[in-house]
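Worked example 3 (structure in, sequence out).
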């Protein structure tokens, strides 16, 4: 791994690689074309990148211009991004799941000059709003036969296919070679690299301005903390590159380390792609890990009998082996022998479904329930948690490979300060750095604030919102509640999620919801109870478990009523809810609940692209259902 780059900018990374780590004939990217995985070398990538840059320069794109992308993960994303980065333009990525209205807002707020569209569906979305976006000069469909989707529409912007653009660009490279090199050398670390729009749980999306230094330094210090990433690793990318987590933790990490990126075809084909690619590293979100856990538990125990006993025995041995090794002790001969047998009979078969080569999974984008992390640890699969925001580039903390404290998000990365501040009095309880780490340090709970190289430049066109987030002393207020536990950062919840009951008790929903999510019958929990006497919830049942238990078909889940009003189903769920409630304080326990027929969705505006619930939207939309929950008289507990 390179310890320093020649210049701390995004386009300098790939050139450092081919100069110091890999020859340009080495494979950089892989994607599936038909039934075959096709490799792309650094040389092929750089040739495409230079061709696109030449075309940009030829149409007058200059440093600081915003160029938009609404495209799925794949080589085309990398080409387009690297091409605009090396001439000093600004990547403005848009989540493919956003509505036309949201896309229009982002294009106008950013004054984007071009937009590349990944498929016909996204292309049609953009065509509908293109004439309402006066700054857009070119629309670039990245697929064939795009003309048939235009319906003779009269557009103010020009349309050119991505393949055609690259073909033209190849004829312009010699003409603009010097201009490309000059533009790349003129980029400063403090220059804007990308705009990433926040997911908008509380209102209009805000364009987070991240610099080249923000991104490159964030990768550098993250790899210092987890130095096991090597140039021989293979990453399987499936989380959206429009989100800062995947862009940093896969794309930029591979640019820095020399690891290879393979692009998954889709979430539905992820399991198949894992077995084909056999990745050594993957980024994931907690929900994926929860699903793997649920499926493994179901497969291991549903048959009953000796198979189930062996599975549960193996998990128990795995737990004992993990604890023995985490405590720094040497596991004895008997435990070692038992663990080898458990590996052969159970663990190896589960690992085979991930390709068999995974050395770590990096979890981000939300809190990973402690029991899920421990489960993977019992299997011998390392899950390293990270924490950060779009506004922090994103990594503020990440688990060290050799020291895992389940239920925490790891040690503070080098070069930044993280403080815990009293929400009411603004007293700072503690300020911690990478260097001040102590294994047994614990702090009081409060808002997490941060300063240092990871902090964004600000929100585009929003000086008031920027000032409300970054105080005059340079501290960025994350809005997350947490503390330090055993030296690591531990997240409690979001400040804006906090419920205060009628008796003044503060209730953070996430740890309460995670307690109930231990039930295999439950897929989701949305806690209610702000300014109320007791806690209620919307419960989303695990669909497969519900279907198996009650013999339900798909029509049941398509019924118009958003809630399931069935006493048998409610009693079935209530068995686990009552049992798990014993792990919580009385004021945190669910006293009544409604069963949501379908999960909350982006299409209905209930969750963000990063799967965070829009509390205000949900509470307004289901206000009558919430009132019904509180017409019920809670029994004594």
């Amino acid at each position: 791994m390179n310890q320093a780059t020649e210049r701390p900018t995004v386009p300098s990374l790939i050139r450092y690689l081919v100069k110091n780590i890999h020859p340009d004939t080495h494979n950089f990217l892989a994607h599936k074309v038909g039934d075959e995985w096709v490799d792309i070398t650094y040389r092929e990538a750089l040739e495409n990148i230079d061709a696109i840059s030449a075309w940009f320069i030829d149409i007058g794109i200059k440093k600081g211009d915003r160029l938009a992308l609404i495209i799925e993960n794949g080589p085309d994303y990398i080409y387009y991004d690297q091409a605009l980065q090396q001439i000093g333009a600004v990547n403005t990525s848009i989540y493919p799941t956003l509505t036309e209205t949201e896309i229009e807002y982002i294009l106008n707020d950013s004054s984007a000059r071009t937009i590349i569209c990944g498929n016909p569906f996204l292309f049609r979305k953009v065509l509908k709003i293109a004439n309402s976006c006066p700054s857009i000069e070119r629309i670039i469909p990245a697929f064939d036969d795009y003309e048939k989707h235009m319906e003779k529409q009269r557009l103010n912007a020009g349309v050119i296919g991505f393949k055609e653009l690259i073909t033209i660009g190849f004829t312009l490279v010699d003409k603009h070679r010097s201009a490309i090199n000059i533009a790349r050398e003129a980029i400063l670390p403090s220059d804007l690299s990308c705009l990433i729009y926040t997911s908008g749980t509380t209102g209009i999306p805000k364009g987070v301005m991240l610099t080249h230094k923000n991104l490159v330094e964030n990768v550098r210090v993250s790899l210092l903390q987890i130095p096991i990433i090597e140039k021989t690793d293979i990453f399987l990318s499936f989380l959206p590159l429009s989100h800062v987590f995947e862009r940093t933790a896969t794309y930029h990490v591979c640019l820095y380390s020399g690891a290879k990126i393979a692009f998954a075809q889709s979430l539905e084909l992820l399991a198949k792609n894992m077995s084909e690619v056999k990745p050594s590293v993957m980024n994931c979100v907690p929900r994926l890990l929860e699903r793997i856990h649920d499926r493994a538990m179901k497969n291991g125990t549903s048959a009953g009998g000796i198979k189930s006993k062996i599975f549960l025995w193996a998990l128990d041995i795995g737990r004992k082996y993990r604890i023995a090794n985490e405590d720094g002790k040497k596991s004895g001969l008997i435990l070692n022998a038992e663990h080898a047998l458990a590996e052969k009979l159970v663990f190896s078969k589960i690992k085979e479904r991930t390709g068999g080569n995974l050395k770590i999974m990096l979890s981000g984008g939300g809190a990973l329930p402690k029991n899920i992390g421990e489960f993977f640890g019992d299997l011998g699969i390392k899950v390293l948690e990270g924490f950060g925001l779009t506004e922090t580039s994103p990594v503020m903390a990440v688990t060290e490979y050799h020291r895992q404290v389940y239920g925490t998000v790891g040690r503070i990365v080098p070069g930044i300060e993280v403080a815990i501040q009293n929400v009411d009095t603004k007293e700072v309880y503690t300020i911690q750095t990478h260097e001040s780490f102590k294994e047994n340090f614990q702090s009081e709970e409060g808002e997490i604030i941060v300063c240092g190289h990871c902090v964004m430049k600000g929100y585009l066109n929003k000086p008031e919102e920027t000032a409300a987030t970054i105080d005059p002393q340079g501290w960025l207020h994350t809005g997350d509640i947490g503390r330090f536990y055993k030296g690591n950062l531990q997240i409690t919840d979001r400040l804006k999620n906090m419920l205060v009951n009628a008796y003044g008790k503060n209730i953070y929903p996430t740890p309460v919801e995670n307690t109930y999510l231990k039930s295999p019958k439950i897929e989701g929990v949305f806690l209610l109870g702000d300014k109320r006497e007791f806690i209620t919830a919307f419960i989303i049942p695990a669909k497969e478990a519900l279907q198996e238990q009650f013999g339900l078909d798909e029509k049941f889940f398509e019924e118009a009523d958003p809630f399931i009003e069935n006493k048998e189903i409610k009693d079935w769920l209530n068995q686990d809810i009552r049992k798990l409630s014993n792990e919580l304080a009385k004021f945190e326990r669910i006293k009544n609940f409604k069963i949501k027929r379908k999960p909350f969705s982006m299409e209905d505006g209930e969750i963000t692209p990063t799967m965070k619930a829009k509390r205000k939207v949900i509470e307004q939309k289901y206000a009558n259902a919430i009132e019904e929950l509180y017409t019920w008289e809670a029994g004594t507990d």
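Notes: Residues 1-5 have pLDDT under 50 and may be disordered. The chain has 20 helices and 28 strands.
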